[in-house]
Amino acid sequence: MTDESAEQESSKPDSSLDARHWVEKLFPPHFTLEDLMKDVGSRSAKTRTSAAEPCPTTERFSETAEYHGRLKKQEIYLAALRDFHQGEEQLKRKILREQISWEAKETGKQHPIDVTDENPADSPSPDCNEEFHRGETSIWNEWDISQFRKAMCEVERDRRRLKMQLRYTEEKLNKELEKRKQLQELLDERENQLTFSRKQAAQQALLVKTLQTESQTKAIQINMLATEAKEKATEAAKWRTSLRNLKEETQQIKQECSNLAWEVQRLQEQQKSEMKRQTEAVRLEHEAAMQRLQREVMQVRAELSAERASHARSRNALELLRKHFNSQ
Q: Pairing with 147, which of 19, 60, 126, 231 sits 20 to 30 Å away (CA)?
């Protein structure tokens, strides 16, 4: 900025005594520069106090990132508000001077002008080349007017520069906000991962505790099974002794069975020979009976033949006798 603007900035009165801009009336701000500075001071003091206290790594990282984001955002706001107030103050003073010059041309008197409701956009532009009538009376000479015009041009350039700076600051703020949003999303993701890891760790700890309990139970069961196995081994030794005795008895029984089998085989052979002898005797007796029956049958047949012959002779005699009686 120029030396004149620096001098005006150094001699700027209290903001409570300045006339309010028409935009401030329509859209009153929610906070002032002093409130923002107080908020920054209180937050920085709170951060310094909380930094001395021990806290978890995740909470410390979250608070630090959030604090730096707020601090960066507040610094950008402060710079933009400071530049905006400086530009507005300079513009108000230049407009007031020009309004005084115009009033002085018309009335020839110097009156204080209230620029509270005056819109800077409705005031004469510093770029316009309006000429004052040389014949009119004025308390300002040509050099003063040229100086006023130079000052107005300087104010317009400062206003445009501040407007561009404000746009750049807004873009930078949007980038910072986007970056902060990405960092916040990354932090949320890391916190979710940490929460999930803590849940898994708790589950694993519970699982380890359960496995330890089961291991103790299994150890008790193993001791009981070892004792039972010893008892079973003793009982198995007894059963092996009994089995050995049973094998000896079985061997004796097998020998007796072998002897009995030989005796049974001998008896079976004897029975077969006896059956064969009896069968032969029955066959011979049957053949003798058959021969006897055949002889009897032949005898009966002979008697039957003789009786048939006698019967035929009797029938012939009876027929002759019937014929004899019939002929008489």
A: 19
Question: Is the separation of the CB atoms in 73 and 176 below 8 Å?
Answer: yes
- For the chain, residues with pLDDT lower than 50 are 1-19, 40, 44, 47-48, 50-57, 109-137
Phi and psi at 131, nearest 5°, equal: -100, 135
At residue 320, the pLDDT reads 87
53 occurs within a structural domain: yes
In a domain, 243, yes or no: no
User: 33 lies in a domain?
Assistant: yes
| Distance in angstroms (rounded) separating the CA atoms of residues 105 and 109 | 8
pLDDT value at residue 226: 92
Rounded to whole angstroms, the Cα distance separating 68 from 184 reads 12
Question: What distance in Å separates the CA atoms of residue 45 and residue 39, rounded to the nearest whole number?
Answer: 10
State the Cα angle at 98 between 104 and 163, rounded to 5°. 170
Q: Please check whether residue 169 is in contact with residue 80, taking contact to mean a CB–CB distance below 8 angstroms.
A: yes
Q: Does the residue 254 lie in any domain? A: no
| pLDDT given for residue 206 in this prediction | 92
Structural domain count of the chain: 1
Relative orientation angle of helices 33-52 and 57-107, to the nearest 10 degrees: 160
* Structural domain for 46, as ranges: 3-210
DSSP, residue by residue, 198-266: HHHHHHHHHHHHHHHHHHHHHHHHHHHHHHHHHHHHHHHHHHHHHHHHHHHHHHHHHHHHHHHHHHHHH
The CA distance from 121 to 88, in Å, is 12
Tokens read off for 172: 């930078």
